[in-house]
Amino acid sequence: MKKIITISIFAAILACAIPAAAQKGYSIPDSLDYRKNIIKWNMTPFLLWSKKNINIGYERVLSPYRSFSVNAGYFELPALFKGLADSLEIESSNKKAGFSVSGDYRYYFKNRNKNMAPDGLYWGIFGSFYHYQFENDITIINSEAIQGNLQFGANINIFNAGVELGYQFVLWKDRMTIDVIFMGPSLSMYAKKFTLGGDITVDEEDEYLKAIYDILSSTIPGFDQLTQEGKLSTSGVNLSMGYGLRYMIQIGFRF
After folding, report:
1. Predicted pLDDT of residue 9
2. Which CATH class is domain 34-254?
3. Cα–Cα distance between 73 and 54 in angstroms, integer?
4. Contact 128, 102 (CB under 8 A)
5. Which residues of 168-191 are buried (b: 16+ CB within 10 A; e: fewer)?
6. How does residue 84 score in pLDDT terms, banded at 50, 70 and 90?
């Protein structure tokens, strides 16, 4: 109940803040030839995690110092045990897929920026949702200590809401934009489900396997439960404050 009340209060504050702040801006004259739209490519998941990640965004200027933006696209993470396969002498195949959706409402600093939105320093409120799932089929080869097949899968959903600080550069005759979000503390809600199955036989006395188990057990919350019961489901609310919780680099075309 406390979690629901906290989330409801947070959502109500955001809902009230948007119309109240929007009334303080003034309208752009219709006679002014002003480019209010930007199509963007979010480079961050493409560069950090997978070349398959394609995320497209759109920003609309509402007033000289207010705008909103939305982003959506395909999302996947790199292999969970990349590099471990060779040392264990295993063959693996995996299926993975996901998507992300996010949006924000921006307030460009009137006294700080020389130009009107979307150029300059801004802060905003944002929300984002990530869904990611994968299945790994693993076959052990050339190992005396461990043999058999293993299936490992996960289904992960994460919702974030918080505030952000960023800067958008407008270049190339007011046509090209570079949007950088460099700080964004948020409230996160998550639901995760992991599954583990197969017909693995293991030499429990092998010291190398014990060392690997200890590493996985210390780095993956609930790993012991997962190996014993074959599944693990977790959900909850996590309040995180600090730098780097939301960061993004986008290249856009303004029109």
Report:
1. 45
2. mainly beta
3. 6
4. yes
5. bebeeeeeebebebebbbbbbbee
6. low
